[in-house]
Write a structure and sequence with these properties.
alpha/beta, Helicase, Ruva Protein, domain 3, Rossmann fold, 2 domains, five-stranded parallel sheet, two-stranded antiparallel ribbon, globular
Length: 340
């Protein structure tokens, strides 16, 4: 496929449509979806945008925020808008892997074992407070998230498509929790931090809750439309200069001294993995698509960089002692690495 000026594609073969027109056509459902979800959600536009990035980018999302910020409501409403299966799993210290993925049950009538599938067999899975379950339960999600399949006994079962895991964790309470290991954190496409609503948004939330009956969410997007959108995203143009910018950002987390960021060297114990480069490019393309563009601009990368990198940068004890967070490191990178 040829491109114009190194930024956007020229004419595609499909019906004589240019790539820009095709993206506008295939991404039109985003506006209808946002309008439908707006019936029950006030604000939180960034969270909804991240949910769509995970869904369209075949990734998973870790949401961090205090209780009451509509995390559960958001993913449940999203599943209803897609007419997809939704499953909510409350992670607790006594949860077992079989409670998550399923198990084999002996049938006394025919003297054989039968598989009973667990709640992970759904299009949208909410792993609520994932850090409250021990490592053996957390790791039970690894195969599902990476391979999109589950093994029970000697049988392997594919998971439904699409398959999106939205895991939440509370940043306030640390007693009785089991921090996610780095290997599992790296499986999440994005880690999104949810903040409190603004004053006016909270006013609207209160008014809706005390005065109005909740409006039902109608299915407005079919799964076939979703698959068509994924095909269209593959043709969103990523310029070589944007690609280099993505690689520079990730490289700067490993070798900050090469980017005149020597001050960050004693603060970073381990930089981001190659998954960060892959997922930053993937998320930037999806973000451009959601915003009805057929090409990625630097602002797409900068907008999503925090969500892709914050759980992939390991900090030293010195950084923790100085109360420096991963987001502070990312802000320095975005300020210092040259933008194309």
């Amino acid at each position: 496929m040829e491109h114009q000026d190194g930024l956007g594609p020229a004419v595609s073969a499909e019906g004589g449509l240019g790539q820009e027109e095709r993206v506008v056509r295939d991404s039109a459902f985003v506006d209808a979806l946002s309008a439908e979800l707006g019936k029950v959600l006030v604000g939180q536009n960034a969270m909804l945008e991240r949910l769509l990035i995970g869904l369209l980018g075949n990734g998973h999302i870790l949401l961090e925020g205090v209780p009451g910020l509509a995390k559960t409501l958001a993913i449940k409403s999203l599943a209803q808008a897609f007419e997809a299966d939704f499953s909510r799993i409350q992670f607790t210290p006594d949860l077992l892997p079989s409670d998550l993925i399923g198990t084999q049950i002996y049938n006394v009538q025919n003297h054989s074992f039968e598989v009973k599938k667990g709640p992970v067999f759904a299009h949208f899975v909410l792993a609520d407070e994932i850090n409250r379950a021990p490592a053996k339960v957390q790791s039970a999600l690894l195969e599902a998230m990476q391979e999109k399949q589950i093994t029970i006994g000697d049988q392997t079962f594919p998971l439904p498509r699409p398959f999106l895991v939205l895991a939440t964790q509370n940043p306030l309470e640390q007693e009785g929790t089991y921090p996610l290991p780095e290997a599992q954190l790296d499986r999440f496409l994005l880690k999104t931090v949810i903040d409190y609503p603004s004053l006016e948004e909270e006013r609207e939330i209160v008014r809706r809750q005390i005065n109005d009956e909740p409006l039902p969410i109608r299915p407005v997007v079919g799964l076939q439309t979703l698959e068509q959108a994924k095909q269209s995203i593959r043709n969103v143009y990523l310029d070589a200069k944007i690609e280099t910018y993505i690689l520079d950002l990730v490289q700067a987390t490993r070798h900050p001294e090469r980017y005149k960021l020597q001050r960050l060297q004693p603060l970073i114990a381990c930089g981001a993995s190659p998954r960060a480069s892959i997922n930053l490019a993937k998320a930037a393309r999806v973000l451009a698509f959601i915003r009805h563009r057929s090409f990625v601009i630097p602002e797409d990368v900068r907008n999503i960089a925090g969500d892709v990198l914050r759980h992939r940068i390991a900090l030293t004890y010195e950084a923790e002692a100085e109360n420096i967070k991963a987001q502070n490191i990312i802000d320095d990178l975005l300020h210092s690495v040259e933008v194309p």
